[in-house]
Amino acid sequence: MTNKQKLWSIFGPVLIAAGLALVVFAIPWKSNNSPATLQKAAVSLSPNVFKNRAIKVQALADKKANYVPFFGSSEFNRMDRYYPATMAAKYHHYRPFMFGSRGTQSLPQLFNMTMMAPQMKNKKAVFVISPQWFVKKGVMPDAFRYYNGTYANLVWLAQANPKSPYDRYTAKRLGELTSDSGTVASYAYKIERGEQLNAFERANIKVRIALLAHEDNLFSGFFLKDNYQKRIQPREKLLPKRYDYDRLYAQAVKAHAKATNNNDLGVLNSFYDQRIKHAKHIAGSQKHFSYLKSPEYADLQVVLNQLKKTNTNVVFMITPVNTKWEQKTGLDMQMYYQTAKKIKFQLQAQGFNHIIDYSHAGSKPGFMNDTIHIGWAGWVDFDHRIAPFLDNPQPAPHYHMNEAFLSTEWQNLTPTATNLQQFKAQHLK
Amino acid sequence: MLTWMQDLPNFTAYGTPTYFIYLLVALLPLGIGLYFGKRFSWYEALVSFVFIFLMFDGQSYQQAFSLVAYIIYQTVIVISYFHYRQKQNASAIFYLAVFLSLLPIIIVKFSPAMVGHNSLLGFLGISYLTFRAAGTIIETRDGVVKDLNWWKFVRFMAFMPTITSGPIDRYRRFAKDYQQVPSREKYLDLVAKAVPYLFIGFVYEFVIDYFFGQLWYPFMVKQALLSAPHLSWWVVGVAYTYAGHLYFNFAGYSFFAVAISYLMGVQTPINFNKPFLAKNIKEFWNRWHMTLSFWFRDYIFMRFVFMATKKKWFKNRNVLSSVAYMLNMMVMGFWHGVTWYYILYGFMHGLALVVNDWWLRYKRKHFKIKSTKWTKFVAGFITFNFVVLSFLVFCGFLDKLWFVVPGHH
Lengths: 429, 409
Prior knowledge:
By secondary structure, chain A is mainly alpha-helical. Chain A has 21 helices and five strands. Chain A has one domain. Helix content of chain A is 53%, strand content 6%. A five-stranded parallel sheet of chain A has the order 2-1-3-4-5, with helices on both faces. In chain A, α6 packs parallel to α16 and α9 packs parallel to α11. The relative contact order of chain A is 0.13. Chain B is mostly helical. Chain B has three domains: 178 residues, no CATH class; 91 residues; 135 residues, no CATH class. At the A-B interface, α1 and α11 of A face α9 of B. Chain A: Pfam families: DltD.
């Protein structure tokens, strides 16, 4: 073999493969998912729906389907027959598009929202806040990276404004949470310092977004978890034909009692068997938990700012915890109520007034699915409160943001009545 | 101070597929040069500097200073010892040089256990550089290093493809490659090996390890921790998925490092040779992290055996080799870090080597077992499962399971 032939035998296959791959990703594939795929994606809770763009943008832009984004976390995986998506399919006009799994707290949701900002403009949304997010260190870097890919990061960077304190705060968090490496972190730190990205950096972002968009269009319709066929559609049939809140509520309490009859905690039987029955050290295990001081408060603030930017009319829900369970673990319920109070203060001070506060509802019969997740009668009540909001026209919201909620002072403020009053006097007009 | 360095992008070696595009483009002129029989040393130094810089800038920029200080420190020791050795050869001076060379890593490895936080002296790859420096001192004492100056030594220490995680080369071997340019035919052979190595690396690192490292192993850990501090079947899953993760991650990385070295005309030794097909634990260490285990074999095991034989420390040859095995593996355990699980890991492997030797002697004496496919399978099966068990200890999961108090979710 001559050297030329040898070179060709080494590099020929690589060059051809690279050429083909480049062609595939450079072709601007159109994403056109069928209504069935969108339906599946809306309740799949799959991370590839969360961190990509094509599917959710198509769904939310679809006027006929009437999808409404629901943002939340692990409670969205509690799909009994009264689950919002099941109830909506049976009784309402809107269709929930569920964004939430364990770990999708404020910041992952911000990046999620940024990717579909145009589609959220002047629309409605539901946002479920768990006090459990507000731990001392905030969102875990692993969870953040799991739900937040380069695509979302770049889309956020492309629209970030280095003059906005909100974007500078987000940039700082992005740098920290992506473990400081690669171009994303270095661009983020630049924004944090208040500097504009230069022309080269912008072009780099643009090209990479384009390639990732093509990849997204090609692949993100695959590998969706089929919750719809398995957990939504079959249960629709179990619901009575006509909507009657009282009847549904009573029925849910009854069904819940039956589904939780192997324990006196009101926890689903299977959950009890797997997670509680054999576990030791439950007693007193949450005695020292506190959700009062956390960077999550500032993370929530940038989400609120995003909702203001898109002028989205949002209804919030603050989740309950199972009181019987927390009596065992020793969680300080006063602390829990105070957390809810602090969150509500932050929301109401800025005009986010549609709030369903379930923080005190955790002892109602049939309200909880397990230890810290709502379900059954809880879902019935939730549905009852959001449906009129979502199905009927609402007056436009008036949000007025206040940067004080980004400060470490607010993040670390213990929300006693005096402290809140003082904070109000100092920072809020 | 130095904010500019914090703001530059940081690129971990071989971290993402895009990294390879930058790296290969940068190395292309070098490859063309080698093809035409020229080694562009200055260009190579420049590319190496840039890529090493990118590994250590950004938020980990303190490490860059530790790295530079460390290399200067080691160069001073090694070159001084080299000059000394040309005239004299006292054991005490040799031991002093080795001790000084090991001092930084001793401080770094003991710091977390002693003072509770990582030492500022540390940087990614310090262990690997220690092996290179200490190995050079030993080779100098043996008189096999004849030609050494500070620039050659720095090039050896800071050889970019292998700087952070090996494979561990030896100065004498490296210098031979580095001082000459391979013939065109030889270089093409290297390139022909490098390309498939790169692609095997891609499959290991970015495809298979994605499943082990990102999906399966974390899932198993999460499930197993639900019943902490009690053992559950999930712990078995943790062990096997971690073994897969460790192998595909590290072997993938090693393929990259070897391939890039080849493209630079240096035949860095390979690090893995199908380790999970080993039929006994000794064979396993001839196939797993080979450059490390050979380093330990040559510089700890063999040295100890020679010395003990010379000084007649042991009457029984088998006792001698058992002690040498234990010493060898315990040192390796400590080298990984001063925690109970690394030390236990070293102890387990030392003991396994002793038991393995004993079994081979016992078998020869008492049974006549013919080696068949079946016996080979059983031997391989036992070895593999023992290794997986030792990795479960090694990965530190048990420490989390038993001793770390569960905090907030």
